[in-house]
Q: What sequence folds into this?
């Protein structure tokens, strides 16, 4: 059962917001790959993309908030929906933070660490994508929320495992301490994306239960 009825403009705003969240995961994955490959122009385009996506998501989130209050829509679930969108907006912001860190600090990524960072970005991007899918289910088919939340948790654990492996390889290697700390900070920023996605998914489970009772 859909949460909204006869509010096609609001549904369109939600779809576009969730599209921006999902696309940010793709930009993360591509941006990390292009930075490591030394494709500076392509990386710069990815950085501009995530800035546009964050700005678009902010605008859409505020528009949704205004409509929910102005039209007195779903008063029982309004707060839950707004918190959920705010959390997803925060995940997009974390993607931007990770890519900005690369752009500002310009760390040299050793060949032995490149694959691990790409795998970490991939796991975080998958966790975000599954959170978006679970959110779409919440608005249209609430019974399906748990299936995707289960996958969010899988990819968050995968990100944790990959992140730990990256740190062990990093600190067991020959780099000087300053470079180790710099690259560890980057790994932390990428891994945080999966943590924030899981936080949103955990809240979504509670909201779905509330909708179902």
A:
């Amino acid at each position: 059962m859909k949460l909204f009825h006869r509010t096609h403009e609001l549904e369109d705003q939600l779809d576009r917001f969730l599209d921006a969240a999902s696309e940010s995961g793709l930009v993360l994955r591509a941006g990390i790959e292009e930075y490591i490959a030394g494709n500076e122009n392509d990386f710069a385009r990815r950085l501009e993309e995530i800035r546009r996506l964050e700005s678009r998501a902010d605008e859409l989130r505020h528009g949704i908030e205004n409509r929910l209050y102005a039209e007195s829509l779903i008063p029982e679930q309004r707060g839950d929906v707004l918190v959920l969108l705010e959390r997803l907006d925060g995940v997009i912001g974390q993607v931007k933070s990770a890519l900005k860190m690369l752009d500002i600090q310009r760390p040299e990524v050793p060949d032995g660490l490149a694959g691990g960072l790409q795998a970490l970005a991939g796991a975080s991007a998958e966790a975000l994508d599954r959170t978006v899918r679970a959110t779409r289910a919440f608005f249209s088919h609430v019974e399906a929320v748990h299936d995707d939340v289960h996958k969010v948790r899988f990819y968050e654990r995968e990100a944790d495992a990959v992140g730990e492996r990256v740190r062990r390889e990093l600190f067991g290697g020959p780099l000087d301490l300053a470079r180790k700390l710099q690259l560890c900070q980057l790994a932390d920023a990428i891994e945080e994306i999966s943590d924030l996605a899981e936080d949103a998914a955990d809240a979504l489970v509670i909201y779905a239960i509330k909708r179902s009772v």
